[in-house]
Every structure is written in structure tokens, then in C-alpha cells.
Amino acid sequence: MRIVLVGPPGAGKGTQATRLAEKLRVPHISTGDLFRANISQQTELGKLAKSYMDAGNLVPDEVTIAMAKDRMEQPDAENGFLLDGFPRNVSQAEALDELLTTENMKLDAVLDLEAPEEEVVKRIAGRRICRNDGSHVFHETYKKPAEAGVCDVCGGELYQRDDDSEETVRKRLEVYHTQTEPIIDYYKAQGLVVTISAMGPVDEVTERALGALKREDDGK
């Protein structure tokens, strides 16, 4: 299957993308991973992207699209892929359509993870990270440490990242609503959107997504 995964920050896209790609046996193609891989390998696209980033500018759509094209043409993506973080806007969605048409491919579904805005803010703004080891993550509501402000694992100080502050989260949501959310209507016009709730335990959301994708596939 060829799937695009969309949803607001805090909806659990990264977690679900990894799990769904494994279940569906297709590569998980993340925009963040594409940038990191191209920059670390010093590809021409990576060098170009880095030049924009070093200058404090956004990487142009055409560079992102070229990276995605290169990744989708790899042998492991022959039978499908799951795109996470791309397309990020309607112009990228249009470019993806052109690319797929050229390659004689098509999307099977656009999976839209829905979560109430206040829940998204609560999920992200409540996160606390260990200063000693950033992989130790707690939450003020869902995963409280035994002692407030102290990591259960190593005793390090727990802190809130700047980009997890409520103000920053709300700004990220504004960007999502303005730039990315319009692609949902774009794909609805093509009959590709499958919407599910991103609320509840991670396993339940995964099973909900797999069930919705199967129904979509069976209906075609």
C-alpha cells in the first residue's frame, strides 16, 4: 500500500507511522529522516538543504520533493511506502501526484489521525525530558515521575523543552491548520481520506488504523 499519514502535532504520527509501516511491511518515509540522511551522507540534495538551513531559511518544496522522489524509487519501496511529514502543503501534494503519475503509481489512502486541539496541547505541553538522558520521557498527567521534577531512571532533572511550551504548541497548531490541513480537503476530493480517532492506547489506535485501511483497500 502507498499511504500518506497526516494529523496535528501531538496526534502520535511518528509512533503510528513506525508501527503501521512494520505491520504493512513497507518503508516508513519521514521528512525528518530524509533530511538527516541526505545531510549526513553529504548528497547534493543534502548539501543544498543544509545551505538553506544554515542561512536560517526554509528548505524549498522542490528540494524536499526531490529527496522524497529519490527515496520512493529505492527497491524497498517498490511495493509501497508510508509517507510521514510529506506532503506538508497542497503544492507538495500536487507535486507528489505528478510524480506518482509519472511513475505509473497511485496512492491507496490518506490516513488522517484526529485528536481534539486541547488534548494535543495537553499531550505535548505536559512532556518532561531528563537532562541526563533525553530518552527518559515523563508526563505531568500520563506518566508522572515518583518525585516531581526528578527522573525515575537516573535521578536527573526533568525539564520542559522550549518547543513543548503551550505557546509554542499553539503556534505549531496554527501552522498545521494553515499549511497542512488543506491537503485533507485536497485528498478528500480524490476519495482517498480515511479518518480515525488518535485517542486511546497506542495499540488500539494502531488496530483502528489497520482496520480502516483494510476496509478502504477492500472497497477498491
TrEMBL record:
<keyword id="KW-0067">ATP-binding</keyword>
<dbReference type="InterPro" id="IPR033690">
    <property type="entry name" value="Adenylat_kinase_CS"/>
</dbReference>
<feature type="binding site">
    <location>
        <position position="36"/>
    </location>
    <ligand>
        <name>AMP</name>
    </ligand>
</feature>
<keyword id="KW-0963">Cytoplasm</keyword>
<feature type="binding site">
    <location>
        <position position="31"/>
    </location>
    <ligand>
        <name>AMP</name>
    </ligand>
</feature>
<keyword id="KW-0808">Transferase</keyword>
<feature type="binding site">
    <location>
        <begin position="137"/>
        <end position="138"/>
    </location>
    <ligand>
        <name>ATP</name>
    </ligand>
</feature>
<dbReference type="InterPro" id="IPR027417">
    <property type="entry name" value="P-loop_NTPase"/>
</dbReference>
<dbReference type="InterPro" id="IPR036193">
    <property type="entry name" value="ADK_active_lid_dom_sf"/>
</dbReference>
<comment type="function">
    <text>Catalyzes the reversible transfer of the terminal phosphate group between ATP and AMP. Plays an important role in cellular energy homeostasis and in adenine nucleotide metabolism.</text>
</comment>
<dbReference type="Pfam" id="PF00406">
    <property type="entry name" value="ADK"/>
</dbReference>
<feature type="binding site">
    <location>
        <begin position="10"/>
        <end position="15"/>
    </location>
    <ligand>
        <name>ATP</name>
    </ligand>
</feature>
<dbReference type="InterPro" id="IPR007862">
    <property type="entry name" value="Adenylate_kinase_lid-dom"/>
</dbReference>
<dbReference type="Pfam" id="PF05191">
    <property type="entry name" value="ADK_lid"/>
</dbReference>
<dbReference type="InterPro" id="IPR006259">
    <property type="entry name" value="Adenyl_kin_sub"/>
</dbReference>
<dbReference type="InterPro" id="IPR000850">
    <property type="entry name" value="Adenylat/UMP-CMP_kin"/>
</dbReference>
<feature type="binding site">
    <location>
        <position position="92"/>
    </location>
    <ligand>
        <name>AMP</name>
    </ligand>
</feature>
<feature type="binding site">
    <location>
        <position position="127"/>
    </location>
    <ligand>
        <name>ATP</name>
    </ligand>
</feature>
<feature type="binding site">
    <location>
        <begin position="57"/>
        <end position="59"/>
    </location>
    <ligand>
        <name>AMP</name>
    </ligand>
</feature>
<keyword id="KW-0547">Nucleotide-binding</keyword>
<comment type="subunit">
    <text>Monomer.</text>
</comment>
<comment type="pathway">
    <text>Purine metabolism; AMP biosynthesis via salvage pathway; AMP from ADP: step 1/1.</text>
</comment>
<feature type="binding site">
    <location>
        <position position="200"/>
    </location>
    <ligand>
        <name>ATP</name>
    </ligand>
</feature>
<feature type="domain" description="Adenylate kinase active site lid">
    <location>
        <begin position="127"/>
        <end position="163"/>
    </location>
</feature>
<feature type="binding site">
    <location>
        <position position="161"/>
    </location>
    <ligand>
        <name>AMP</name>
    </ligand>
</feature>
<protein>
    <recommendedName>
        <fullName>Adenylate kinase</fullName>
        <ecNumber>2.7.4.3</ecNumber>
    </recommendedName>
</protein>
<keyword id="KW-0418">Kinase</keyword>
<comment type="similarity">
    <text>Belongs to the adenylate kinase family.</text>
</comment>
<feature type="binding site">
    <location>
        <position position="172"/>
    </location>
    <ligand>
        <name>AMP</name>
    </ligand>
</feature>
<feature type="binding site">
    <location>
        <begin position="85"/>
        <end position="88"/>
    </location>
    <ligand>
        <name>AMP</name>
    </ligand>
</feature>
<feature type="region of interest" description="NMP">
    <location>
        <begin position="30"/>
        <end position="59"/>
    </location>
</feature>
<keyword id="KW-0545">Nucleotide biosynthesis</keyword>
<dbReference type="GO" id="GO:0004017">
    <property type="term" value="F:AMP kinase activity"/>
</dbReference>
